[in-house]
Amino acid sequence: MKKDIHPKYYPKAKVTCSCGNTFEVGATVPEIHVEVCSACHPYYTGTQKFIDTAGRVDKFQERIKKAKEMQDKLQKKGKKEESSAKNKKEK
Fold it and tell me: Taking a C-beta distance cutoff of 8 angstroms, is the pair 33, 16 a contact?
């Protein structure tokens, strides 16, 4: 085995989650920062929690809402045109 090719191993590296939970693991870096851990991940907690970065969920929901409004508006407009066309044919 070659000497000095392996990184330094830290048997008690500190892991810090964005939820505030901390624990120790073995790693090649002394400190690790994570966004999700077993204390706050929905799979382990059984609760649904949006981890929204840069408002992506809100932007998506807004886009869906606008699309639905446009679809409803077009359907109403189509119904008005159909009824006016029928009225013209009857006269």
Answer: yes
